[in-house]
Design a protein that fits this description.
By secondary structure, the chain is mainly α. Helix content is about 55%, strand content about 5%. Helix 1 packs parallel to helix 10, helix 5 packs antiparallel against helix 6 and helix 7 packs across helix 8.
Length: about 300
């Protein structure tokens, strides 16, 4: 999203950025790399007005509790930047909590394709309509039902239905004759209007970038980090570790399957043998993440 995050000349991803999921993932690993916390705070100070507080809270419930608490730093930086919506989330501070160094990010590259969600929010407001349209455009014409749209956007199914039906009435998207109710967008037509550029490219990109279910992958990996930390700190036995691993996978199974990842069933292995299933799943999510970052990059 910024030249600060990816220096000039380095390869940059060509997928739609999920801004709230990216902030939450950065908070989850910020203690390992303080520059990430600095960058997140700088983003909050300059661009919190393009972020959805409602969606941030909703997605935070999918991450470990520590990540939700860690959002206070983002909220304080947002309030310092003039966005009072984040005031309540900014309350409270842990002793010894890291105070990030903020610096201006400069102009935001909203015309670049991966920033599509933020660009639509800048044009249409911070609401379900902008996010639903971003998702449908990123699916390249493939239909999505209301449950999938709600899971991907983290808005309620009722809010998604209202937004989709009103956009269909306006001709921005189309309702598909199917059960359950589904919607799609003509990506090629919208691409002509949006003319999204590839990062670092002076000209328009050839198409709208693909949507990636980043929130599902990031939340699962953040859960894995928390699980591994507790295994070490509490000295769990292999049996206890595998039992907690089953709970973790079950909690994230549905969104991971919506991201088209094969998730093992809770009874796929006995006792501590399930840890091998977990290790394989983590490898596949890691590969899925790399594929998404490299998509269309050549």
């Amino acid at each position: 999203l910024t030249s600060t995050a990816v220096p000039e000349g380095q390869r940059r991803a060509w997928t739609i950025v999920d801004p709230e999921a990216l902030v939450l993932a950065s908070v989850a690993v910020g203690h390992r790399e303080r520059r990430l916390e600095d960058l997140v705070a700088s983003w909050a100070g300059d661009a919190a007005y393009l972020m959805s507080l409602q969606r941030m809270r909703s997605l935070a419930s999918r991450f470990p509790e520590a990540v939700g608490r860690g959002l206070r730093g983002f909220a304080r930086a947002a309030v310092a930047g003039g966005d009072r919506r984040w005031s309540r989330l900014a309350l409270g501070q842990t002793e010894g909590e890291y105070v990030p160094r903020m610096k201006p990010l400069g102009s935001l590259p909203l015309m670049e394709g991966p920033a599509l969600t933020l660009r639509l929010r800048a044009g249409f407001g911070i609401n379900a309509k902008a996010d639903v349209l971003s998702l449908l455009l990123g699916l390249a014409g493939a239909p999505a039902d209301l449950k999938l749209i709600a899971a991907a956007t983290a808005y309620t199914e009722r809010a998604v239905r209202t937004a989709a039906e009103e956009m269909a009435l306006a001709g921005f998207i189309q309702e598909v004759e199917a059960r359950p109710a589904s919607f799609c967008a003509e990506t090629a037509a919208w691409a002509q209007v949006l003319e999204g550029r590839r990062p670092g490219s002076p000209g328009p990109g050839p198409a709208v970038p693909p949507w990636r279910f980043w929130a599902a992958g990031f939340a699962f990996l953040a859960g894995i980090l928390e699980w591994a930390k507790r295994v070490q700190e509490e000295d769990w036995s292999p049996y206890v570790a595998s039992s907690r691993a089953r709970d973790l996978v079950e909690r994230h199974a549905r969104p991971l399957r919506q991201a088209r990842l094969d998730v093992p069933r809770s009874n796929s292995a006995r006792g501590a043998e399930y840890l091998l299933e977990l290790e394989d799943l983590v490898r596949r999510v890691h590969a899925w993440t790399n594929e998404g970052l490299e998509a269309g990059g050549s």
